[in-house]
Design brief:
By secondary structure, the chain is mainly α. It contains 23 helices and two strands. It has a two-stranded antiparallel ribbon.
Length: 448
């Protein structure tokens, strides 16, 4: 008789799997309520595209800053304590939107987002390797893809809140850039104060909700890993990790993937605006992208039963590159549809790269996870470069033509480059890199 395949999640570990998986939706909400804020802050505070892109720089640079400290904290203490600290930082950053709006300071808003993502760095550095440890090694990548499938559900919530409670209520957007700029100073100041309060309020409510969840985690009896503390040094673990091409190339691929994702989801609003669609009216396209992303995540998780991760990654990167080429060269709503369609092929990239890199790493996975989360800095750097391209002809999005298309279309050559790097990594894994097994410190099974 054929041997039964191991379960994705053992029944005995189902409860901790469900509890920790809820965090994936929580940081998805934060990510996607923030993406439209690039355009919102640009209009309310009268910024150029490069200045507005600092929203994403502040948000994603927080991951780079705090990922390694988060891994050290989790190693020294516990997954549960790391999650509690992460939730505390998350709530602090969200609540700082209140004084930022009172002072009407763009820098203060950026600081609040930076601190908020300190918390997200703790959550992501902790949750992903913990999910991978909750069952057989053979199903770790599928298990992570399953947990990550709940991330876009939270992201959908973030986009809906952004549309209903922020973008649709901004007076600066309703008036239009030229009319807003021409207002007398007193009236403009009143609208700016009102609009910043509109941006502020959902973040305050988010901070309160996160504090409630923190209270639940404080009382929750969550399974903890019994680890051999003491002998596993940071330097030794990092040395073992970076000695493996399969791992270090994953960090590079992850940085480029996150950069591509954030560019495609941030600048969908600018792309839509260039063809006459207002920001609030463009949100349904962002929602469609997330729905397609969610479908792709479930499809990809199923396909991983039949295809190796590297092979599937290469195929999906090829599909993403094709859709990006259509985004660049199809001017009008057809290009916008292609931009939405990229999300299907992006769906499996983050957890698959993550799972391939950490497969077989045992206790080294804690530090391995840190560098993969630090790679999210690609989401800080790439959008700012795209903002510079958008500013080449002026503050608009169709001021000049490059390769025969408006600069907003041309700017998607950056995601195209990123998908090429992801495809290269998929090829390398499929053709050259066996699973990482030698010299790895084993990871004990979590005890209930």
């Amino acid at each position: 008789m054929p041997q039964a395949s191991p379960p994705v999640v053992p029944r005995s570990l189902l409860t901790p799997f469900i509890v920790v998986t809820s965090l994936f939706a929580l940081w998805g909400f934060a990510n996607d309520i923030t993406n439209p804020m690039v355009s919102a802050f640009k209009k309310v505070l009268e910024l150029d595209n490069f200045q507005a892109s600092w929203v994403q720089f502040a948000f994603y640079f927080g991951y780079f800053t705090m990922a390694l400290p988060a891994a050290i904290f989790a190693k020294r203490y516990s997954y549960k304590k790391s999650i509690i600290l992460g939730l505390g930082l998350y709530a602090t950053g969200a609540l700082l939107f209140y004084p930022a709006a009172s002072w009407e300071s763009y820098g203060f808003f950026l600081l609040a987002l930076y601190i908020l993502t300190f918390g997200l760095a703790f959550l992501e550095t902790t949750a992903s390797p913990y999910i991978m440890s909750l069952g057989p090694e053979a199903t770790a990548t599928r298990r992570l893809n399953l947990a990550q499938a709940f991330n876009p559900i939270g992201a959908l919530g973030g986009l809906i809140v952004a549309k209903q409670f922020i973008l649709s209520r901004l007076r600066a957007d309703e008036l239009g850039s030229e009319a807003y700029a021409a207002l007398e100073p007193v009236r403009k100041a009143a609208i700016r104060t009102s609009d910043l309060a509109v941006i502020r309020d959902p973040y305050i409510l988010l901070g309160v909700a996160v504090l409630v969840l923190l209270g639940l985690f404080l009382t929750l009896n969550m399974p903890e890993k019994s680890t051999e503390r003491g002998r596993l040094g940071i330097r030794a673990a990092i040395h073992r990790l970076w000695r493996q091409p399969r791992y270090r190339e994953a960090v590079v691929a992850q940085a480029f993937y996150v950069g591509a994702q954030i560019m495609c989801w941030t600048y969908i609003y600018q792309y839509a605006e260039s063809i006459g669609i207002a920001n609030a009216d463009a949100v349904p396209y962002g929602i469609a992208a997330l729905v397609i992303f969610l479908v792709g995540r479930w499809v990809g998780t199923y396909l991983l039963r039949f295809f190796p991760g590297g092979t599937l990654l290469l195929a999906f990167a090829g599909g993403a590159a094709l859709m990006t080429l259509l985004t660049i060269f199809l001017v009008g709503v057809a290009g916008l549809y292609a931009l939405v369609g990229i999300s299907f092929f992006m769906s499996i990239m983050f957890p698959t790269i993550y799972g391939i890199a950490l497969e077989g790493q045992g206790e080294d996975a804690k530090f391995g996870a840190a560098f993969l989360v630090m790679a999210i800095v690609g989401g800080a750097l790439m959008p700012t470069l795209q903002g510079l391209i958008l500013d080449l002809g002026g503050a608009g999005y169709s001021d000049i033509r490059l390769l025969g298309v408006p600069e907003v279309n041309f700017s998607f050559v950056l995601p195209l480059l990123c998908f090429a790097v992801v495809g290269w990594y998929g090829y390398r894994v499929a053709a050259h890199h066996p699973p990482s097994t030698p010299d790895i410190v084993p990871s004990p099974t979590p005890s209930l």
